[in-house]
Amino acid sequence: MSFNLFSSSISLFSKVLDLRAQRHDVVTSNIANAETPNYKSVHVDFEDELKKALPPDNALKMKRTDPSHMPATADFNKISPTIDYEVTHVNRPDGNTVDLDKEVVKMSKNQLMYSTVSQLLAKKFKGLVSVMKEAK
After folding, report:
1. For 126-136, what is each residue's pLDDT tens digit?
2. DSSP, res 45
3. What is the DSSP letter of 84?
4. Quick one: DSSP state of residue 36?
5. Can you count the helices (H) and strands (E) in the chain?
6. Which residues pair with 82 in a beta bridge?
7. pTM for the whole thing?
């Protein structure tokens, strides 16, 4: 019987932080190119793929008892974001499609979500540290 010290939630939080960082990079690139002629704004989408990787709320908890069995937890490393040109209705004479207000809102929302997930991950690690201290 194996004991997994690092639960799947740590893998999930880690992957979400990576995806949020990637989204941040794309949004900052859009903002940086707001005045570049013919620049097309880009967006990162990963939420749908993330939802597919998560087990449903009512799913039974499974345990892998043999290495040949299928893993009972989701492999979050397989989640890859979709990066596409944003469909926008911005009609600028220079051909640029960046809506600066929209990008700033995206950045704020993404920063808030990143901060929330990093706090959850920090709490998870604090809990592990507490358990290790108690085990001494």
Report:
1. 888 887 887 76
2. E
3. E
4. S
5. 3, 2
6. 45
7. 0.74
In this structure, which amino acid lies at residue 60? L
Helix runs in the chain, H state only: 8-32, 47-53, 100-135
- Rounded to whole angstroms, the Cα distance separating 13 from 76 reads 9
Closest among 58, 50, 61 to 12, alpha carbons compared: 50
* Choice among 13-27, 58-72, 76-90 with the minimum mean pLDDT: 58-72
CA 104 from centroid of its chain's CA atoms = 18
Which DSSP state fits 88?
-
Compute the distance between CA of residue 47 and CA of residue 56 in angstroms, rounded to an integer.
15
> Has residue 39 got a pLDDT over 60?
yes
Nearest Cα neighbor of 75 from 6, 3, 8, 29 is: 8
Secondary structure percentages of the chain, helix, strand, coil, to 5:
50, 5, 40
Can you read off the two tokens belonging to residue 36?
A: 């570049």
Q: What pLDDT, on the 0 to 100 scale, is given for residue 59?
A: 53
Of the candidates 28, 40, 30, 32, the one whose C-alpha atom is nearest the C-alpha of residue 90 is: 40
Domain boundaries, the chain: 9-135
Give me the helix-helix angle, 8-32 and 100-135, nearest 10°.
Answer: 150
